[in-house]
Amino acid sequence: MDKQLTIEAPAKINLSLDIAGKRSDGYHEMRMINHSCTLADRITLVPGGPYSLDCADARLAADESNLVTRAVRLMEEQSGQTADFRLTLEKRIPEQAGLAGGSADAAAVIRLLNEYWRLGLSVEELASLGVRLGADVPYCVTGGTALVEGIGEQITRLEVPEGFPGSLIIVKPDVSVPTPRAFALADQSELEHPDIDGLVETLSHGACERLAEFGGNSFYTVVSGLYPEIGRIRQELLELGADYAVMSGSGSSLVGYFSDEDTRDRVWKQLTGLYGSYTIIRTEYR
Asked: For residue 78, how many other CB atoms are within 10 A of its CB?
């Protein structure tokens, strides 16, 4: 194939996240309901080697440590091909936000090279490869709304009414939460355990007003204890009109869900006025 290819890498949002326990190997058993949104990075492949990665965001290392390049090397190993192209990465997903930006990029590269090299691998096979790069990569390969279990490798697609749960606001304050630290704190704390099974049932009926009854995030109490602004933003989202608000991943992003787009846009304007230095993004459920 000698034509330029472009692929989107949608952000991952945890609609609900439960840390079910710690395993003997040090990993944690998770139960999560994930979904994609229209916020996405973009990766463009231009044929003609040698391989290189270009990213305008100077904060990201464009070397062998980057998850994009690691995904390229993994696919080379899997296929026996040699990377004879250049990649350009356009970042839109905030870093260290609990939105799996790096994992989304790696997953997009896996899918892109499956097409570019005509490998014919199934989504399930690509997801199995992705777990070698990180726990969020298999989900990011499959996308959509899904129950994710184990360390991220067990994925069950969920049927959700079209357009549910509606319009979103993502608010990332000026703090970053290292995931290893969040897990270490969680191991020492009494955790919230959201009702994942109840939320699966709620999603099947499209009951936006019941998301808060079943959803939540096991990391929230310990992380918001470290960073009070996280709790404050969540409370303001709810007071201003969100049907549901939850922290994604180990933070620091808060996500507000709105059944009405006009309400979402009004709240976005209010929050932008309150928190001019924060990253505040309007997006849609995907």
From this structure: 18
